[in-house]
Amino acid sequence: MKTRGWRRRSAASAEQRGWVDTDESARSRRRRWAATDPARHRFRSAQPPSRTSPLRGRKEVEAGTKTIQELGRKCATLMKIKKHYGAPSLFRIVFIGPRGSGHRSLAKHVSERFNLVHVDFNNILEEACLRETALGEMLRMCDHRCAQKIKSEARVQIIERYVLESDCLKRGWILTSYPKTVEEFKLLDMISTPPNRVIVLEIDIQTCRKRLLNHECNFTSEHEFSCESSVTDPDYKLDVHFNNYKDIIEQDLQEYKENIDAILQYAGETASIINATGERKCVKERLEACLMRPAPSAKPRIPYPPPTIDPMDIEFDPDDEPDLSIFDDIRAPEPKYSFI
Prior knowledge:
Keywords: Kinase, Nucleotide-binding, Transferase
InterPro entries: Adenylat/UMP-CMP_kin, P-loop_NTPase
CATH topology of the domain at 94-119 and 171-220 and 242-292: Rossmann fold
Helix content: 40-55%
CATH class of the domain at 94-119 and 171-220 and 242-292: Alpha Beta
Distance between the termini: 114 Å
Pfam families: ADK
GO molecular function: ATP binding; nucleobase-containing compound kinase activity
Organism: Acromyrmex echinatior
């Protein structure tokens, strides 16, 4: 009985002095005490990672004599540092699809969603033609005088100059309207910053042809509309774009059909194929999910394999004396002494 009375009196006195908070648990009190006394404890910038968490380790900040403001800035800095797991941290995407598949509008959506630079080859080709450079003069000459197709080397040179600008290097890029042949794809893989993701839209050519034949363009705003959509604004003057003439559409779709098999064979397992049929919202979701997943695990593409050397073609005579002059560039010269 005496022991129980002593316990009751000690608990009552502790509660009167403010040592015991009956409304909170002991764990909550320890957490509150750690927050009010940072000099004795460490602040963790993240919770211990779970099995499904991408963070495999803990990040800790030594408190010491730091103030709350300094600890907060340090924790915020550590939280911004993301470790790379699986998917590339900077996208360099080649987006391939036939005309009428909506690949340019989808690329624009991806560029806004992932903060990328949308690089459309047709647009940068027009910009390069207008520049007063040697390359621009050559492009204008090929376009107007020679009426010849621009060489693949000049095309990839235009793309390489553009993607090496600071904005593309910092944010990444998504390329459309290029490459159109497997030779252009191989040249693209040989630039300083080659693509690390290849996405191909899978869609029926007949569907693309139907979409292109139903497109009309407002030449004032350069916006395209479908013939099935109703435009009530009287200021909109719609007409067929010159690229949407039937013969040009057939030529572009036939060129795509002739080259897509070779492109897919060269890309191999590095290419991700997206079903582009159905509602546009579903296609966007499939595309975003593809980019959020890690890149396909496959062997890297080899644009041009190294030449094979036949051992029988190598001439070697074991009785020949080695030429010592080949070591002159890699060894220090011997000191020369004069006793005169």
